[in-house]
Design brief:
Metal_resp_DNA-bind_regulator; Tscrpt_reg_PadR_N; 3-stranded antiparallel sheet; Arc Repressor Mutant, subunit A; 108 residues; WH_DNA-bd_sf; PadR family transcriptional regulator
Length: 108
């Protein structure tokens, strides 16, 4: 039986946690966009569309949570690699602490 409420809730939760996923992955290593999509799927089992990820990356850069650099590839086509900034690391720590607080309260 399809439970529309839970499907919608899962979707909203995934969307709300996407900035946390991005910052968490980039705290481990620098990534280019497609690599980030693959890592989010591998680590969090969440499919992210390019049309969802790239606007988020732009927003996080405007908020100074991320930096980027162009890296030349052997193919000659440069890739934009994203990295977490010091501000991003600070925000990530607060996001993780708040998420842990919520989980602790839910689990009693």
């Amino acid at each position: 039986m399809k439970n529309e409420f839970l499907e919608n809730w899962h979707s909203q939760l995934r969307k709300g946690l996407l900035p946390l996923y991005v910052l968490h992955i980039l705290d481990q290593k620098q990534c280019y966009g497609y690599e980030l999509i693959q890592d989010i799927k591998a680590v969090f089992s969440v499919d992210v569309a390019e049309g969802t990820l790239y606007p988020l990356l732009i927003r996080l850069m405007k908020e100074e949570l991320l930096t980027h650099q162009w890296v030349e590839q052997p193919s000659g086509i440069p890739r934009k690699y994203y990295a977490i900034s010091a501000v991003g690391k600070s925000n990530l720590a607060e996001m993780k602490a708040y998420t842990n607080l919520i989980i602790t309260k839910i689990n009693g």
